[in-house]
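I have a small job for you when you get a moment. Can you supply me with one protein entry, sequence and fold together? It will help me judge whether the discrete encoding reads sensibly. Write everything out right here, beneath this request:
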Amino acid sequence: MAKILIVEDSSVEMEAITKALEPTGHELLKAADGESGLEMAKNTKPDLLLLDIILPKMNGFQVCRDLRSDPATEGLKVVMLTSKDQDSDKFWGLRQGADEYLTKPFDPEELRKVVAKYID
């Protein structure tokens, strides 16, 4: 069983992501803002991070950059899961070090496939 950290400030989106991933049996950790998400990523060493971009306290781009610049977390797999759907947003997200970029609304099956790609 893998640990997946979900960093998402919307309770509605968090619920949708949780429902999509519960059938996988993985442990789901949750953070509602960028700062706590970054701290949890460093402290819990998840196998995968699902990261929103628009977050309170610290945006997802900053979180991803900080994780990539720290030798302890530079290898963490990061999937940005966000409503920012412009090509420039995707380009910037991948440039910050994200391994994958998915947009909301998401297809639960597609999300499970992406998760499986990185941790199964």
User: Anything to note?
Assistant: The CA atoms of residues 23 and 112 lie 9 Å apart. The domain at 3-119 is CATH 3.40.50.2300 (Rossmann fold). The chain has five helices and five strands. The first helix runs from residue 11 to 21.
